[in-house]
Amino acid sequence: MDPDALKTYRYFLKDSIRKKINFRLTDQNQHVPVPPLQNPCPADARRIDLPGPKEWKNITTTDLTKAIANRKSHRKYLKQSLSKEELAYLLWTTQGLREIPVHGHACRTVPSAGCRHAFETYLAIFQVEGLAPGIYRYLPVDHQLVFEFSDDMLSEKMIHASLGQTYPGRSAVTFIWVAIPYRMEWRYGLAAHKVMALDAGHICQNLYLACEAIDAGTCAIAAYDQEELDEFLGLDGENEFAMYLAPVGKI
Description:
Elements: H1 3-20, E1 47-49, H2 64-70, H3 84-95, E2 119-125, E3 134-139, E4 144-149, H4 154-161, E5 173-179, H5 181-188, H6 192-212, E6 216-218, H7 226-233, E7 241-250
Antiparallel strand pairs: 1-4, 2-3, 2-5, 3-4, 5-7, 6-7
């Protein structure tokens, strides 16, 4: 496209979006109740308590400058399990609460536009001490896991849904961040779709740095079969959909 034509196109595109986004008409300003901080789970669901920061005994602090300098993507992992403590640490650093929720808001360990935190964390667990392989979901308000389901072909299905990339099915655990767009739309309307993508980056960068503290590695993945992964996780693909993956394993 001609540079001048592209510039004109971008101007009108931004102007069109600007006119459509009327913050006075968002659900927040229409006094619609705030969406829940985390999706509910059935009363009879199997929940697993996770050790909190005050209970960690084997998580060592790491120099931030060193962690940033060493940060890189890892696609090969040792056949070694993560401890439940290490998994709890990674979950807390990526979506954990820093203080008790107030008025439908919760300050977490990562920034989020308007403190909306539009993501649920699903986990494909393969090798974590004390946990059977399967799909789990993190409950940040409770700092617990809820067991979703097991599948004898979990590794193969994760690889297939990841377009043949093997490491999402050969990690100790693969993080799958699922977007709940309405949590962000409630405040920002159409602008929600931009800031959700920014928020996903915040979460995954924390995972990269946290992995440095436990001799583990990760690799962000955005290439996957959307419909296949959503269907596998039981998501409708509109109100909830997978947005970002990150396998984690010892290196």
